[in-house]
Amino acid sequence: MSPTQGQGEVERRCDGTSSLRAIEILQAGSGNRAIGAVREKLVLPDQLPEYRIASKTVPIILFAARAGSTYSGQLVARHPAFGRVAEWFNPPRLERLRTEYGFQNDAEAVQYLLDREARQLFGTECTLYGLTSCALLGFLDQILPRARFIMLKRRDRVAHAVSLTKAQLTGQFSSNQTPRMIATADDYDADKIASNLRIIASVYAQLEAFLEAVQADPLTVYYEDIVNDPAAFQSQIFRYLNITPTSVPSQKTSVQKIADAVNAAWIERFRREA
Question: Which of 60, 98, 252, 263 is the most core-located residue (most Cβ within 10 A)?
């Protein structure tokens, strides 16, 4: 199957019923906070456009923060049909583009990304907030029939919660960021870790409710498996998307692991004291 349609061809958007239903599910799951918070940050046009997108398949990686999305997205983007795969629908990213290039609204910023960040295929990563932004901007309605969802999780939920807690403390959510402070074992906060465990569970419950609402069957992958065998992960994703690279893709990324002895100490203490 070819990964592209005719260059510049615009597909008719679906009627939006599935997307609206998904938004209702997200609202119910988040007490309206996600929808309201994202809507406040976006600059929406008076009328949503038909986006120009030639990508016949649109992979969307769904995840909770600190699940390994940057690393996973870069591995997927090693297929030559992709440009970059990133969190394109984060409202702050769209705001930066809108400000830098003088766009009138965030839909124009989305079209800029579609034109600049895709080759034959366009892929994106979405947290719950990014997915909500994607829906509010009308992009989800348009590409839903050709979306392929990938649910990225971590098998070790305690390690996930510790990673998120440490990132919130230091401000470093990826190795490409500079931490505002260095965390130590003494910064351990059992209540915050427990709270993040509940938040992570809630995020995945809401993402799964969204997938059920749109009747999508995702491919579920786990961070630990990806780290252990990145080439196998790439092969799994490319099979799922029905795309075959002409050569073996590289597993090189710009991401470095930032978990350290502090993470290990917090994990051991939380498990011991729980």
Answer: 60
